[in-house]
Structure of Isovaleryl-CoA dehydrogenase:
Amino acid sequence: MPATHQVRNQPPDRAPYDPWSEDVALQEGLAREGAEWAAPDLRALGVLTGDPDWLERGRAANENPPELRTHDRHGHRLDAVRYHPAYHDLLGAGITHGLAAAPWRDDAPAGAHVARAAKYILWPQLDSGTLCPMTMTYAVVPSLATQPDLAAEWLPRATTSVYDPAFRPAHEKAGATFGMAMTEKQGGSDVRANATRARPLEDGTPGTSFRLTGHKWFCSAPMSDAFLALARITEDEDDDTPPSCFLIPRWLPDGRRNAFALQRLKDKLGDRSNASSEVEFDDTVGWLVGEPDKGVRTIMQMVAHTRLDCVVGAAGWMRHGLAEAAHHTAHRHAFGARLAEQPLMRGVLADLALESEAATAVALRLARAFERASTDPHEAGVQRIATPAAKYWVCKRAPMHAAEALECLGGNGYVEESPMPRLYRQSPLNGIWEGSGNVQALDLLRAIVRHPEAVEAVDEELDAAAGADARLDAAVGTLRKQLAEPVEARARQLAERLAVCLQGALLVRHGAPAVADAFCATRLAETPPGAFGTLPSEADTDAILARAHPALA
């Protein structure tokens, strides 16, 4: 090669790599939260998520987004979405590895939901778009369980490890995936502002069936086999009867396609490999799930589990950004030394590592609460209070974390050949999906007022770390005053304070001393730092970085 084309001072390709073996905090969290038995599964998934061939599938699925086919060449309605083959490969691998509804199987061991959460943290290093249908297939189970006849029909297919992408009736398939269609143009997060109507169906169709008419502004993963949606059981447009919840299959029991008219696919900022759509119901057949007029309560069981995945997914994005930054700075030289050896960069990397580890800790703790909530009142209380706080804060931190991690790569991180632009575009999603920041803050206020026993459960979690760090004790004292007199105008501050106190308590109890000390010195300060990379001089960055990633040891 000519001398001008010799490539120097560029990092080697990161792949192949093993994100599981690189992540000490994830390994410790898996064991701490009761799923150490799943370590071999995580090890196998780690090899897959760092495999160059699978990473290429992730790239291809995102560079070739889904296409809507409304009609066939003869003019018949199709209402189908065509995906790149790589998308089906990825979704199939994720379901096979248990990222969908496998933890709900009767034979699933204790800790299965924690193990799934740990896998979910690894998966974004391949692709995030396929997480959407896996999340909804996972989250639909508690809502469907309220309707035993539908549960008996659908849950065996939802909880299998088989993925069948064929567009055909679900009863002909071994596995099924689920979607959700809640929001409408006029309501958005206010799902009670629902204009879709349902009227009883009296043509011999089995079950409690209805015909729905309406338009859903967001329908996620529209090629799923079935969906949950809300509609009012009335034909009067002015009737404000509370909405009910319905299961809407793409195919009817007799093999006919249900009326499910896809109007368009959303052209989204991120999540490009996955399709999101608008859909119209025109005498669309749906089956009642749960009690009539109690649809919000029924579907909120599904929403709660999708919010868990918002936290877990955001933790996965942070880990991905940190790993890419660590790899680049460990191999790139500037001003006579590796970037990772220079004090300012080490401060940035250590700060990113703190945020990533804190997010991982609270995500796995929350997964344990979800797993045990049905039988343990304490865990139910933790779930109720910690979910909106963690979703609010961890998802708010993800875009800032992605931006700083991208900056560590400089211009190399800004070009589309890098994984960082895709990560950056993806990072705001979970803060929006299933209730934005204000919705989470308001949900937290409602939980505090209506469920004092849940506040007591969180108190117990914080008490377990009492006396270990004076800064944490002071922050918890302030938090308790805010919990005693919650004010809507300061609900965001309350959600943030609660989330960082829970993270601090987990790190003080279980984390490395250097990590816990630096976290408490910054995140629990009265005026937290505004940017990553401003750790106090006494922070043990060497210890933090040695733990964070092998490339930084």
